[in-house]
Design a protein that fits this description.
2 copies of one chain form a homodimer.
Chain A: H1 7-17, H2 20-29, H3 36-40, H4 47-59, E1 63-65, E2 74-76, H5 81-110
Antiparallel strand pairs in A: 1-2
The structure holds a DNA duplex.
Chain lengths: 115, 115
DNA sequence: CACTTGATAAAGCTACTGCTTGACTAATGG
DNA sequence: CCATTAGTCAAGCAGTAGCTTTATCAAGTG
């Protein structure tokens, strides 16, 4: 029971976000579309390397590429970020509930039974 | 400006969560402490492999290991999960704000200026 | 047409990951 | 004391990730 999110998608998404350059690109795209060349400009690596990073983001659904003249404008697809948040929040929820029960239990022990 | 979270920590955390076995261990630990042996039991891999996975989770602050008799009870440290959620929510917030402005702008274009 | 620009494809190289096995340590129990 | 249990350490190996360089393609521009 509980929300089950596709494991392969989570693998790919977390792996994609585990790279600073790719997180940077995601943050940049959250402010609007950009071409590969524009995205590559700030980095000391080749355009090809950045294109490969975008490929990783595209494969896990975080980014999509369109076509306009010779350029391939990239845009963020933020919906899938939701699945990562859902997974994290689920673990935190279970842990928090357990801590609540634990505190209640400890309080019960401390306070002698009133009967 | 805005919240800046330590990049190395995010690298390590997202990389740790990019593995199904490790996500599984995190989920298991959200329901309570467990020893290495207990955590390893469900998996077809060696105890050493699971111990290494726990090491990865420990290095990024998601899990801590205590000592009790011969065992090393592991427990979840869910606070650091917060930084991952914060990073994701920041990108989504920026994107959502931009979409709001875009909608407003499009509405302004559609509706002729009233003056 | 040839040339430039924006981008992908493919091959190769280094470094790291996930796993294995074998050896070791540390605490408990006969 | 020796044996067992729980776990770590270390070496090795196959597979992958992140880059590079070279080559190629596709869409303007002179």
């Amino acid at each position: 029971m509980g929300i089950t999110i596709d494991d392969e998608r989570l693998d790919a998404m977390f792996a994609a976000l585990a790279d600073r350059t790719r997180r940077d690109i995601v943050a940049r795209l959250s402010t609007g579309e950009a071409t590969v060349k524009e995205l590559a400009a700030p980095y000391p690596m080749s355009l090809q390397a950045v294109s490969q990073h975008i490929g990783v983001l595209e494969r896990c659904g975080l980014v999509s590429r369109g076509r306009h003249r010779q350029t391939r404008p990239c845009r963020l697809e933020p919906q899938v970020l939701e699945s990562a948040v859902l997974w994290i929040e689920e673990s935190r929820r279970v842990w928090a509930e357990r801590m609540d029960r634990l505190e209640t239990h400890l309080a019960d022990l401390q306070e002698p039974q009133q009967r």
